[in-house]
TrEMBL record:
Signal peptide: none annotated. It holds the Pfam family RDD. The keyword Membrane applies. Residues 78-231 form the RDD domain. PANTHER family: PROLINE-RICH ANTIGEN HOMOLOG, PROLINE-RICH ANTIGEN HOMOLOG-RELATED. GO terms for cellular component: plasma membrane. It is found in: Cell membrane. This is RDD domain containing protein. Residues 1-55 are annotated as: Disordered. It is a multi-pass membrane protein. InterPro entries: Pra-immunoreactive, RDD.
Amino acid sequence: MSFGDPNNPYGQQPPQGPYGAAPQGGQPGYGYPQQAPQQQPYGAPQQPAQYGGYPQQQAAPGYGYGQVGMAGMPTAFASWGARVGAALLDGLIVGAVPLIVGIISIIIGASANSDAHSAVSSCGSDINCLQDAQSSAQGSAGIVIILSLVAWACAIAGGIVILVKEGKTGQTPGKKALGIRLVREMNGQVPGFGLALGRRFCHFLDTPLCGLGYWWPLWDEKNQTFADKVVGTVVVRAQ
């Protein structure tokens, strides 16, 4: 038997193709031309870039980073009149219950004082009568003190609720009614409770000189009070 015998299946060599041609039924090997990657036509939407096999997520809508007044940030600052109106509404909301309780305590105190004077005039030298009048006056005084404490507690609780809403949403009930919002100047985000509380303390800087800090937004470029400038906040129109 010879390698050239066509009847010998073991000695046959596979036919060789031309140099550079790819073998039949297989993948192109080294030295063979590779297929060029398909390019997307001009103007077609690009696929999002992937990192580690996962597509990158799109950024959530909202204000980006940058100071208020820049592109993509709120630019319409609240007017001085809108700020004053919001402050008055908040004052009425917070002070309504304490005011009512205070008026009741004043009425009770005045009535007790009048009754005490009448009792002293009518009792004369009657010791028992004077003691009863004194006990009645002391009871009325205790009621007045309790009502006064209730009024203060309501005022403090109302102020805290207003402050929490302002820090969390940038809006108090008054600001929401007037369509304005308190935000951070650096990024347009809500201030948070801590910054809102610090701003409330900084309002003491607005009070001296006939409340000059409260009047400052009338001519300030960003309609800021002194407290706003210290903590870095602005009041803008709600979007």
